[in-house]
Input
Amino acid sequence: MMATHIGYNSGVTGEHILVVEDEPAVARGLLYGLNNEGFTTSWAETGQRALELARHENIHLILLDLRLPDISGFDVCRQLRTEGKRQPIVMLTACDEEVDKVLGLELGADDYVVKPYSLREVISRVRAMLRRAYGELAAAAPREKLSFGNVEIDLERLLVFRNSQPISLTPTEFRLLRYLVSNPDRPIGRDTLIETVWGYGSDIGDDRTIDVHIRHLREKLEDDPTTPRWLITVRGFGYKFKP
Ligand code: CA
Output
């Protein structure tokens, strides 16, 4: 078992869930629910984007809509399995006929949920799949660390080190940093950061709040916080992590 690797019982250590769904309202509901439960989320609106994210980010589980604007959820699933990606995939399907295909064609999906589903149902499936999958994958799973320059982020223990010295970050700063570092070289808008850190529809965060947290992160992590090397401002938009 790998209980020490990922806190799958609570979700508080933020397993990374990729939501593949082209309908924004549906996606937002899922992202909001997952964030509320402590999961880290990414959203792909198309199958191609889903493949990119699944290839380049550390995704623990994929919630995959069947009907997407470019390639189908079936294709995404088949492609990932062909590439040896083993994350659990939970299909979001619209009717029984499609469910039959998911099961019958053995495309590599691990579970499915039929629309309309309740958020509670989806989250309970997600937890069950994470538990099952990461119990099985434990032996092969690498230790979860991210690093850049003289900074190391220990995702397992929720610690950050600079020059091997522990740095004290607030939970909000940690989530913000983890999200930025998990999406290198990608400009991320303030709205997205707010949703990521506080969840969709939250009225806690606003643009200025994000700026304050970024400033604190720079003060804690950058050699020269006034001329940041890692946490870069994207003018009029947001921020990006430059590896
Ligand atoms: Ca769809």
Observations:
- Residues 22-23, 65, 67-68 surround calcium ion (CB under 6 Å).
- Residues 119-137 form the longest helix (19 residues).
